UniProtKB/TrEMBL annotation, chains A, B:
One of its GO terms (biological process) is negative regulation of DNA-templated transcription. This is GntR family transcriptional regulator. Transmembrane segments: none annotated. The keyword Transcription regulation applies. InterPro entries: Bact_HTH_transcr_reg (IPR050679), Chorismate_lyase_/UTRA_dom_sf (IPR028978), Tscrpt_reg_HTH_GntR (IPR000524), UTRA (IPR011663), WH-like_DNA-bd_sf (IPR036388), WH_DNA-bd_sf (IPR036390). GO terms for molecular function: DNA binding; DNA-binding transcription factor activity. Keywords: DNA-binding, Transcription, Transcription regulation. The lineage of its organism: Bacteria, Pseudomonadati, Pseudomonadota, Alphaproteobacteria, Hyphomicrobiales. Pfam families: GntR, UTRA. Residues 9-77 form the HTH gntR-type domain. CDD domains: WHTH_GntR.
Amino acid sequence: MTPQLRASRSLHESVRQELLNRIQNGAYLPNLPIPSTATLSSEFGVSPITIKRALRDLQAIGAVTAIAGKGTFVKEQRRFLIDLSDGIAHLETANVRLMSIANEKISDPAMEMFNPPGEATLCVRKMIFFAGEPPLAYDSTYLSPDVDEAIIDKFAARPVTEALGRLGIRIRNISYLIDASTAARKVAEIFAIPNGYPMLRRLYKVTTTKKGLTIFGILQAPFDRLSYSLNIQSEN
Amino acid sequence: MTPQLRASRSLHESVRQELLNRIQNGAYLPNLPIPSTATLSSEFGVSPITIKRALRDLQAIGAVTAIAGKGTFVKEQRRFLIDLSDGIAHLETANVRLMSIANEKISDPAMEMFNPPGEATLCVRKMIFFAGEPPLAYDSTYLSPDVDEAIIDKFAARPVTEALGRLGIRIRNISYLIDASTAARKVAEIFAIPNGYPMLRRLYKVTTTKKGLTIFGILQAPFDRLSYSLNIQSEN
DNA sequence: GAGTGGTCTAGACCACCCT
DNA sequence: GGGTGGTCTAGACCACTCC
């Protein structure tokens, strides 16, 4: 019954590779549980601890989700694609859930590229998701503390570019910084992903035609939920 | 001597958080070793295994690098920034090391968005790096198998857009897909990073004015080495 | 109550580096 | 030879879910 383990530098790595193959081959199906740690332990003839180690690595790369008391489930892979070719991240059909509004300084070091204001800003944090699906992204928008109440309300209710559209405010320029990061504790809780899970981030600075209104922010999503496309036509 | 551990859901998480704080506070300095597992074990009053668990998590998020036989070192954080505003990833001053040239089919599922050819292509794989620095990126370029020898040579020696420039071939259109991923075994070895390490990827499709020459490829880099910027001026 | 995954510990062995 | 991190195992306890 003991399957052939791939030659590899370590046992847990071989186990991980074999389980991953089964997932990719369809031997284990999305949204269904894989055999329990105890079962796999006897099947592979290795310690339960080694199985757990392999499963933990599979969680880290987004292949499975473990729920204590229930089992370990194969994760369904479905990525949302945002096109940035016109500078706008189109999310008109998305839902928004406001998480918090607080006075806060912009602290992320990657943000320094945009020369953000040193003083405290008004930070609007929200989740972006589609009905019936796991949360897509977490957005932190930083506004000048003296903006109108009406503007804050719009940013609390809709994604950035759509909020601007509904307010009738024109965009002058958008700067993006796209990078990958690892989920901090709070973000990991929100998305129900392990601490340190890879995140795709888009930092933005939006300048508008409305005097004094410049918007900074970070939109981040688990790496297996979102990607960006971009098309550039050569001039002439 | 036992320091106060942050209230948290688990011991190894508290330890990880405390060590991360020390790194960010400058108590542990870049490129220098932190105390050994045994030392930390007695300092925190927890099992060495728990320390190892915390250190492994810190490796996974790119905070430290462990070298068996030497110690665990704080990783220096320096990210290279590529501007994509004109569609070109400028890498003129970078060095290139050819890794392999082989006939291969394009297999990455994310690539399907570009409708790549189903038949086998010529795959040129190379490292991109700056002198005296750890490798920056790993590029896989897929060419039609019937391209000229001279063209293959240029792609083996230089980054894609620069190779085209030197060949005097004009670009008609570039499509990008930017996402995050986790390092497969082979890639992890090349970069000397742990298996499953977060990677920032840029998939591309370049169409040219030269008849029949369309280039597909994937450029990937460890998440803590590279990020992309993009600036969009609003028309009118 | 039985089964699940998550955590923590103890102890052993290995490969590697440095002196 | 002594120190380092990496691996594997055994065994225990917990919180949770489902029947």
